[in-house]
Amino acid sequence: MRIIRCKDYADMSRKAANIISAQVIMKPHARLGLATGTTPIGAYQQLIEWYEKGDLDFSEVSTYNLDEYRGLSHDDPQSYHYFMCKNLFDHVNIDLARTHVPDGSDPDAQAACASYDALVKEAGYTDLQLLGIGNNGHIGFNEPDDAFSKGTHCVDLTESTIQANSRLFESIDDVPRQAYTMGVQTIMRARAILVIASGAAKAQAVYDMCFGPVTPRVPASILQLHTNCTVIADEAALGLCS
């Protein structure tokens, strides 16, 4: 596991965007695994800026998002499909037919998850998987558990995750209680993994991910076993890592 220390959020975002852009430049038909939440927004903004300057071409890129809230349609302003359009897809020349997000509007969890698993497998899994990390060490929506998850599945969100995500909703009561998420095994099949983290609130989770025991109680800790995992974090997020 390679750790890159950054000065602040802006520095972290630029360095993350550098790695993503290099992947796209070296492999124009790259398969990117993408993440949502507030942490990757700065990196997406940097990618948009470079695209507008003519430095990047997304026309052949395919994307596979980690997760989606159960019960939200693609056009719901709180859905992750909507988030990706607003923060990246609408601003670059990506073919929307090549973008993929689990179908949160499908009430049949088993069918929705199996379909997304098949899609990711057929693509050959991702070349580069972007991840954030939750305060409790979750990746995607893989919450602390007794075992590492495998394929895409429906998960009950923990109270801490609901609380953390409530800042993006009008009220905590509006936050969905379930989500469809790629499993840990699927994430680990990516050829390269890039984890980004910012802020003191992530410091314990980052330390546990990088230096703690590998345990499903901290889902991100399994990334220690990946052969090509890079962590890019600012000083605050690395506050417990000497």
Quick synopsis:
This protein has a 7-stranded parallel beta sheet, covered by helices on one side. A 3-stranded antiparallel beta sheet has the order 4-8-7, with helices on one face.
Give structural attributes:
globular; Rossmann fold; single chain; 242 residues; 7-stranded parallel sheet; alpha/beta; 7 helices
How would you characterize this protein structure?
With 242 residues, this protein is an alpha/beta fold. The chain has a domain at 10-120 and 141-191: Rossmann fold (3-Layer(aba) Sandwich). Helices cover 31% and strands 17% of the residues. It is built from 7 helices and 10 strands. It has helices at 9-26, 41-52, 80-87, 109-123, 159-165, 184-188, 203-211, and strands at residues 2-6, 31-34, 62-65, 67-69, 99-100, 128-131, 153-156, 178-181, 192-197, 229-234. The strands form 2 sheets. Strands 1-10-9-6-2-3-5 form a 7-stranded parallel beta sheet, covered by helices on one side. Strands 4-8-7 form a 3-stranded antiparallel beta sheet, covered by helices on one side. Helix 1 crosses helix 2. It is globular.
